[in-house]
């Protein structure tokens, strides 16, 4: 399983600076894609919510308590500021990259809907 800071760092390396809302949606979508392809979750994140809405318990706090993440108040986003190598298995990286590609084309509402309307989304809430 990948830690939330590690998967967030990978996403932010590719996307520079994202609001925690979008980070959580990309993580959830990557999990759903891997669940579909490989039948397994990629993080141990605790998803809290219900129909139409969710959050990842402790994600924002975990990132902001790390020296490798910086909140840019004026932009309302979080940036990864360390130069550490981020090693993620190729198959899982492919799921994350696919989630990033889908997210790039979607508004916040569209991205949220893609996640919460996914047939496997209820499994994330278990």
Strand percentage = 5-15%
Alpha plus pi helix count: 6
Helix content: 40-55%
Question: In angstroms, what separates the terminal alpha carbons?
Answer: 17 Å
Give me the Rg, rounded: 13 Å
| Topology, number of strands | 5
N-to-C series of helices and strands: HEHEEHEEHHH
Mean pLDDT, to the nearest integer, reads: 96
Low-confidence stretches: none
Assembly level:
single chain
> Which word captures the global form?
globular
Number of domains: 1
Sum this structure up briefly:
With 126 residues, the chain is of the alpha+beta class.
Please give a structural write-up.
With 126 residues, this protein is of the alpha+beta class. It has one domain (4-124). 52% of the residues lie in helices and 14% in strands. The protein contains 6 helices and 5 strands; from the N terminus they run αβαββαββααα. It has helices at 4-15, 20-38, 59-64, 90-104, 108-116, 121-124; strands at residues 17-18, 47-50, 53-56, 69-72, 77-80. It has a 3-stranded antiparallel sheet. Helix 2 packs across helix 4 and helix 2 (20-38) runs parallel beside helix 5 (108-116). The chain is globular, with a radius of gyration of 13 Å. The two termini are 17 Å apart.
